[in-house]
Each structure stands twice: as C-alpha cells, then as structure tokens.
Write a structure and sequence with these properties.
The chain is an alpha/beta fold and 252 residues long. The chain is built from 8 helices and 7 strands.
C-alpha cells in the first residue's frame, strides 16, 4: 500500500505502471534509491516507466513543480535499479523503493533541482522512512549502487540538505591537499560504506568509477577531481560512522 502521501499541494496518480513483481527474498523495503529521469518532462518519463515494452518502472516520479506521481505500490518490486549492488544486497530492486526526480540530466544541461521539487522529495522520503523504518544511511543514489553504469542524481543534488533533516547521511568534507589518495585505503573504505568494489589493485578503471560515484555523492564540489588523500580520508570517516550493515541493527 502507498499509505498517506505527503501534502505537497499536488495531485497524485497511483498504480499506473504494470511493470512490477513480488519482492524476492524480503517482505519489506529497507532501502531507498534516488534517481533523476534523464528526460525532458515528467510525462515523457511516466510514459516510459509505464510502458510494458520498456521493462522499467519506479515507485514515484517527482516533477519540477513538486507534483508527485505514484506509479507502483510500495509493497511491490519496481524495476528501477537494474544491475546494481549495495553492501551485501545484490537485488537492489527487491530491497528498495525507487524515486525518479524529473531532470534532463548531464547530457541535456543538467539544471539544478528546484526548491518545490526538493520539498516534495523531502516530504515523500520522510514518509517512506517513517513507514518502513528505513535508516538514513540506506538512502542512496542510483550512481551509488551502479558506479560506472549510472551517474544520477549527480553532484548538483543536495544530499546535505536531506541529511540535515535525518533523511540521508553526510559529513562536511575538508579537502585541503592535492596529494594522491591510496587506492587500497579507498577500496576498503568504499566497500565498508556499501559500494561494490571489484577485487583488484591500484586505481583501476572500475575503482575510478567507484571514486566518481563517491565524489558526486559526498564530495560534490570535487566531483571531477582525481582521487586525493583527503578525499580518501573522508571516505574512511564515513565508513567508520555508517558502515553497510543490517539496516535494522541500531547504531550508537
């Protein structure tokens, strides 16, 4: 069931997409994945997410004016994350609720996310977290669960704003050097946070993809910088504070 949606001042359409199945191996969501649509309009995105031939869907779409569209029941497994992984979760779709935020994306100007849209994101996210007891460290971006394959919602998305309300996690970074970061230290920290890190040595292309996803999420002002020692140290701080564990284990 969707439960009571937040009062965004916008109409809500429900259960439009036929693209969903039973959750596999779990009976309730314990993650939220935030995306951008990468399309020019909400209608274009909704048409695709409701097209059986496309075989994609999401639980919610949030338009630039704050309008919320509910496409798939939260109890159901929507098809938004594709080939992805977070911590020990290899079927992210079964574990998560997917929210698509209307934005044309990096390939089409990548405008900032408007205030009214962010307010609706916060309202929807707050109710999901409360309804399913999802901890804020289990709210992630599409790029987090599919580094190298996806880059959304990108470096302009205001994760700090969500964290200040207990809707995500954040530590203010202190990037103050240009010294190269240690690849092994970053690999260990990123894996502890939840990123899937291939077993390799050095700054391989796969590990650089993880760095890019991490930087867009936690170092947005340095998203295009090469891996630095202070950036790796920031990853280590995050890993100590919020390691990927069973989401229902309380953290001190």
């Amino acid at each position: 069931m969707h439960g009571h949606l937040p009062s965004t001042g916008a109409s809500v359409r429900g259960y439009l997409s036929p693209n969903h199945t039973d959750r596999r191996g779990v009976d309730r969501p314990d993650m939220v994945v935030l995306h951008y649509t990468g399309m020019q309009s909400a209608i274009a995105a909704i048409n695709r997410l409701c097209d059986p031939a496309a075989e994609v869907s999401a639980h919610y779409v949030i338009d630039v004016d704050g309008t919320v569209f509910a496409l798939v029941d939260e109890n159901r497994r929507a098809w938004h994350a594709g080939r992805s992984r977070w911590g020990d979760v290899t079927d992210v779709n079964s574990h998560s609720i997917g929210i698509e935020i209307v934005n044309p994306g990096h390939g089409a100007g990548y405008p900032p996310f408007p205030e009214q849209q962010m307010t609706s994101v916060e309202n929807v996210l707050r109710e999901i977290i409360e309804r399913w007891s999802i901890p804020p460290w289990r709210v992630v971006g599409h790029a987090c669960v599919a580094p190298g394959r996806k880059i959304d919602p990108g470096e302009k998305f205001d994760w700090r704003r969500l964290a200040m309300q207990g809707l995500a996690v954040w530590l203010d970074p202190a990037i103050d050097d240009d010294a190269p970061g240690d690849s092994a230290a970053f690999r260990n920290a990123a894996a502890s946070i939840g990123y899937y890190v291939p077993d390799s040595q050095g700054w391989t292309e796969d590990l650089l993809d993880v760095w890019s996803a991490f930087a867009m999420r936690f170092l947005p002002g340095h998203a295009k910088c090469v891996p630095s020692a202070s950036g790796v140290a920031h990853a280590e701080k995050l890993a100590l504070r919020w390691p990927a564990v069973d989401p229902h284990i309380a953290k001190l």
